[in-house]
Amino acid sequence: MKNIRNFCIIAHIDHGKSTLADRLLQTTGTIAERDLKEQVLDDMELEREKGITIKSHAIQMNYKHKAQDYVLNLIDTPGHVDFSYEVSRSIAACEGALLIIDATQGIQAQTISNLYLALDHDLEIIPVLNKMDMASAEPESVKDQIVELLGCRREDIIEASGKTGMGVDRILNDIIELIPAPKGSEDAPLQMLIFDSVFNSFRGIIAYFRILNGTIRKGDFVKFVNTEKEYHADEIGILKLKPEEKQELRAGDVGYIISGIKTSNEVKVGDTITHVERPCSEAIQGFSEVKPMVFAGVYPIDAEDYEDLRSAMEKLQLNDASLTWEPESSMALGFGFRCGFLGLLHMEIIQERLDREFDMNVITTVPNVSYRVHTKKDEIVEVHNPAGLPDPKYLDFIEEPYIKAQIITKSDFTGQVMTLCLDKRGELKNQVYLTADRVELSFDLPLGEIVFDFYDKLKSISKGYASFDYFVSDYRPAKLVKLDILLNGESVDALSTLIHFDNAYDFGKKMTEKLKELIPRQQFDIAIQAAVGAKIIARSTIKAVRKDVTAKCYGGDITRKRKLLEKQKKGKKRMKQVGNVEVPQKAFLAVLKLD
């Protein structure tokens, strides 16, 4: 056990952690030259396309140091704020972390929040200054920032480059020297923490675990503590580039177990596995329960695909434990699911994965956050969906979630960032200059305001330099109203939103104008209205496509034309009574992109 090191890599998005992980794999000979490609651990097609890490990936490396063989278990983690739950799970399975900071950009918001996650678990932190080969690197000023943040010595900071391989040997040396070996006993009752799982259509569910105490052998009879299910360990092994079967694994090891589990709700991430005959006395304290920030309805385009969508969601949840969902139905869209996501990028990724991995075409409704509704009977109702809002006459007041946001930006963009946050009903709490040209701004913001396009706007006004991190602080009373969209007097529940009273008119006007462009014309007029309660606040009309019925009348009496026009008028009237308006998928997406 003393020769095992478990560590993860944490960093802000785009600071080069996947590239540095490639160099570590290459230096330790874990990966053959012919298999080498960029970001080898990002094996999902979507990750390679977007150039971001979505999943944590575990891999084992062997390394010889001072004539001793060491086993290094590396877990590469995502950097984006929407995937911080993945990071927290990786951290729970490790004793140390490489904190990677880009020498050209310095410390960013996500670096700080990931660092605090690691410090909460008492991990040993090794600071690494990456991208030293770039001409725009500013190592001295970034080192000042690191020393101030970590309180370490300047000489502890490793200068490295993922591209050229500079500093990799020193990183491996420090991992072995500084990160403590796993604690635990091989003779104690078995205690294994599940930190991830994947679905394999041939083998069932494969759970990834970290053994804290005890030893497991192939064929052992094991029990999952929280779900109280019992299985035989058909296959256990370690995670190399491809899984490698082993006969036994001991305390400190990271590996996988296949036990022929077919139903996804029998494996919970954060659960403990132990032996049936000699169980451990208590389950391992898992990670914090995930709190979704953004809710949206996901509906199959074809109602018959509902069951397929359900099984796709179950399999996705195995692979992404931060996704939560429950069934719901809508008048406009039929049966579907109300899903909770950690953010908008998370929602976009889930939609893409449903399409690519499970071939599911889905409609996603307007995302919103959860509100606390206080009724006049002193009851508190949690509302995730505008349709679930009680009747206005029973309402006392509504509370909305507020977040504490940390924005780190170059000081040139301070004014624009402040304007953006104040437009979103934010309050400036604090302003700290980290260096001469970098400033940290702290805001209290309503979560509902940042759900739509806040992150995109922040990136564009700061030319990509601002970094953003947040956590939910509390609920505060707000003057919110339910904005309904009516088509020919019929409410489309999938387009209704809860919105602040001051923004309702502008938003309603933009919605009606946008829908006018997107809904195809019919042979009758379509009235698109935005309403708050019974009051119409905005309207657009899609004019009818008119067939020229008098085209074949030339000459003769005017009454011939009038007769044909009257006949057409009656037909249109009847059509308006029975005709229904289809809202295309584009319309639901366009609402998200309203400027």
Short description:
This protein is α+β, with helices and mostly antiparallel strands and 595 residues long. The protein contains 14 helices and 31 strands.
Question: Could you please describe the fold and organization of this structure?
Answer:
- Strands 11-10-16-7-8-15-12-13 form an eight-stranded antiparallel beta sheet. The chain has a six-stranded mixed beta sheet with strand order 2-3-1-4-5-6, sandwiched between helices. Strands 21, 22, 23, 24, 25 and 26 form a six-stranded antiparallel beta sheet that branches.
- It folds into five domains: 4-178, P-loop containing nucleotide triphosphate hydrolases (Rossmann fold, 3-Layer(aba) Sandwich), CATH 3.40.50.300; 191-275, Elongation Factor Tu (Ef-tu), domain 3; 294-367, Alpha-Beta Plaits (2-Layer Sandwich); 372-478, Alpha-Beta Plaits (2-Layer Sandwich); 484-489 and 502-592, Alpha-Beta Plaits.
- It is 27% helix and 34% strand.
- The radius of gyration is 29 Å and the shape is globular.
- The two termini are 57 Å apart.
- The longest helix is centred in the C-terminal third of the chain and has 21 residues, at 558-578.
- It is α+β, with helices and mostly antiparallel strands.
